[in-house]
Amino acid sequence: MRLDPTSLRLFVRVVEEGTIARAAAHEHIAAAAVSKRISELEDALRTQLLIRSNKGVEPSAAGRVLLRFARSVLYDLDRIYVEMRDYAAGTRGYVRVCANISAIAQFLPSEIAAFLRAHPDVQIQLEEKISSAVIEAVAENAADIGICNKPESAQGVEILPYHSHELVLATPVEHPLAAAPRVRFSDALAFEFVGLHTGSSINLLLTRAATEAGRYVRMRIQVTSWGALCRMIEAGLGIGVLPRYTAQPYVDTGRIRALVLDEPWVHRELCICVRDLRALPAAVRLLVEHLREPR
Asked: Using 50, 70 and 90 to split pLDDT, how confident is the model at 195?
C-alpha cells in the first residue's frame, strides 16, 4: 500500500472546503479527478474517510485521524522541499499565516511588505479565515502564525497582543442617520444591514448585541469583504458595522458616512497566536517580532 502526497493534499482540501466541487475549483482540477483520488485512498486504507450528503462532505472518525496525520506529513514534505530549495534559490524561510479579514484589510499588507523588503529570502503564505478557524489552524499545525480577534480563552496556542481598532456604523450619504455624529446600536437596528458572511466574528458580535437589546439584526445582504460591504452601503442597500480604518477611504471621498457607535464593544483587540513562542523556526520568529514592533 502506498500513499501519495497529492491524494493526501486533495483529501485535506476536500475536508477544509466541505465539498469536492469547491476543493476541485481551489486546486484547479476536475471534480471527477478529486473524487477518484478520494475513492482510491479509501480503497487503499480499506475504510470510509468521508461521509457524503446532499450538503457536502465531512470526515468520518477515521477521516479525522487521517486529517491530523496528513497535515503533519504534508507540512514535513513542504519543509523538506523548502529547505532543499534553499541551496539552489537562496530561500531562507517559509511562513504560513492565517488571519481574519480585519487584520488583512487594515494592517497586514503594509507590515508584510515591510518585512519582505527586510527579509527578501523569506516566503509568506497568507490565508484568510474567521477568527475561530485561525486559532484552530494554529493549534492543529495548519498555520505557523494566526492573527484574529482576541479570544476569551484559547487552548493549544499562546496569545500575544497585536493591534487595537474601533468599529463604526457606516451609512449611505443620504441615510436618515447620516447627520448624527454618534448613535446607539439599538437605534440603528430599526434599519436594514449589510453584513459579512455567516460565521464571521462581526456578525456574531452584532447578533449578540441585538439579542441583549431584545431586538434582532435585519440582515439584507451578506458579502465576503469589507470593500464589498462599503460598496453595498454606498449604493444605499443598507447600513453596516466595520473598522474605522477600512471605512475611512470611502468616507474621505464622500461616498459613505461613518458614525461613532456609542457602545463599549466597538473597541476591539487583535492578537497574534502561535503554538509555542520559544520553539518557533527562525523565519517565523522574525515575522512575529516584526508584527509586534510598535508603530
From this structure: very high
Nearest to 241 by CA among 214, 211, 262: 262
Q: Show the cell assigned to 203.
A: 456578525
Placement of cell 451609512 in the chain: 171
198 φ/ψ angles, rounded to the nearest 5 degrees: -60, 135
Count each helix (H run) and each strand (E run) in the chain, helices first: 12, 12
What does the pLDDT look like over 20-38, one tens digit per residue?
999 999 999 999 999 999 9
H-type alpha helices, 141-195: 185-188
Domains of the chain and any CATH numbers = 5-63 (1.10.10.10), 74-163+269-291 (3.40.190.10), 164-268 (3.40.190.290)
Task: Indicate the burial class of 206 (C-beta count within 10 angstroms; 0-12, 13-18, 19 or more).
Answer: buried
Q: What would the pLDDT profile of 35-77 be if each residue is shown by its tens digit?
A: 999 999 999 999 999 999 988 999 999 999 999 999 999 988 8
Q: How far apart are CA 79 and CA 94, in angstroms?
A: 8
Beta bridge partners of 169: 241, 259
What span, in angstroms and rounded, lies between the C-alpha atoms of 291 and 106? Answer: 13
pLDDT in tens, 229-240: 999 999 999 999
- How many Cβ atoms sit within 10 Å of the Cβ of residue 120? 11
Ramachandran region of residue 97, left (φ > 0), alpha (ψ -120 to 50) or beta? Answer: beta
**Count of residues in the chain:** 295
Instruction: Taking the CA atoms of 87, 88, 92 and 95 in sequence, report the sign of the dihedral they define.
Output: negative
Is the Cβ–Cβ distance between 5 and 75 less than 8 Å? no
- Cell numbers found for residue 156: 493549544
Question: Distance between CA 144 and CA 102 in Å, rounded?
Answer: 19
Phi, psi of 21 (to 5 degrees): -60, -45
